[in-house]
Structures are given as structure tokens and as C-alpha cells.
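Open question from group meeting: does this chain pack into something compact, or does most of it stay loose? Before anyone orders reagents, we agreed to write out a predicted structure and look at it together. Recording both the input and the output here so the notebook holds the full record.
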Amino acid sequence: MEGMSEAGGIRLRYRSEGEGPWLVLVHGVGNRLEVWDGVVAALGGRWRTLRYDLRGHGESDKPKGPYALADFVADLNGLLDAEGVKRCHLAGFSLGGLVAQGFALEHGARLERLMLLSTVAGRTEEERERVRARLALVEAGDASVYFESSVARWYSDEFRARHPEIIAAQAKSHRANDPQAYAAAYRVLAESDLADRLHEIAAKTLVATGEHDQGSNVRMARLMHARIAGSELRILPGLRHSILVEAPEAVARMMEAFLAARA
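C-alpha cells returned:
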């Protein structure tokens, strides 16, 4: 089922499919709900997935910025209210992982299990400088230039060589973003950091990232794992940032194993 949901004054495009416990999926900056297609297909309908276009993305509303992480958290909470979801498992990728962290801190009573995929916390000053440089490129308004500068960080050399059609489709999707909304969302990714509050997360948590992810790197994944009591850590061999696109079956298997494991 696909539709538009009114959540706290903003219209969000969503898609729900499958049966079983609720599993909510939050995409990253510059993406839209379709980035989860491969993962959802690999899950085989065994979970009742709910995914949506973040504000400023896809077919959801694109209010004028600036945006704040709290806006994205409130949007998610409003969507769950609108769709009658009382409790759920939650997986967030990249910016979506920041939204998931914020949701776990503000609305932990609604969470069963939490999955933080290729996301960030505890950036060093050098890492903050690098992401600010990428933000400046996004704010310059040329999505094609930003994508071309990032594609080697996001996908392995082997994947890019084998699947030029997928890279081309991803480039087209990024070019379709509204420049101002994209920049407003990217600023949230660049400037938000919940490292000092991670110890407050009570939900059973999985932290995962690609072995060679530069922006959401292994050091940050280990920091999140260390600060969230009882969390699990998975480092995906050979992968860079775009694990949902490059390795959806592996991501789905990892998620299902985590969700199926006894507490």
C-alpha cells in the first residue's frame, strides 16, 4: 500500500507492505524510499515494513529550511501516529540513522529494536571539516558535481564496474532532488551529533557499517557500540557507504538475524 500521510502539518509519502511485526525503514540524505527496494525484496514479506520519503525528499513536502534533527524525529513520530503504529522495530541509514538515534532518545517507549546502519556519531574535528566541505558543495547547488565527487566513497570499485546502470540510476535520482531542500537536509547530517546521549538509548540495538565507509566509519560504529549498552556491532567486509544498494541481501540477512535473536 502506498499513500500520503498528514503528519504534524507535513505530508509524507509512505509505502507499507508485508506481514508480521512493524519494521520502519528510514533512508539517507538525497535518497527516497525506493533505496530500500532491494532490502525489502530480500526480506520476502516476512515483516510489515513501513518506509517513507523524508521531508524535503521524493514526493514528500519540501518546506523551506532550515531543518533540524528534531523536525525529522517529529515527522517520524507523527507518521507512526497517523498509520496506527504503536510500537515498531526501527532501522535508519546514514541521516536516517541519526533520525533513528533521535527517535530512540525521545520516543523510546515506541521502540522494540533499533538498527543504526552506516550512520554517524562522535565525529573528530578532521571529520567535521570534511563533512563541512561536502556541505559547501551541496549548498553550491549542483547535485551532479556532488554525486560524481562522492560515488567512489559510496560504492566499491568492483560494484561500479559491474553495475554502471545502477550508478546511472542513482545519479539521476540525486539530480532530481530539490536543491534547497537537499542542502537543508544535508546540513542536519553535517551538524548533528548525539554521541554524548547514546548511553541513554535503552532499546536492543544493532550498529553496522561498511568496512571501508569513510564518512560513517568503523571508528564511529565502534564508538556507538561502546556507548549503547548491550548493543551488537557488525562490520560488513569490502563495502563502503551505500550498503542498501550494493549489498541489500546481506543487509536483509543481518537485520533478520538481529531481529530474530532472543533478547
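Observations to bring back to the group:
The chain is about 45% helix and 20% strand.
The longest helix spans residues 125-139.
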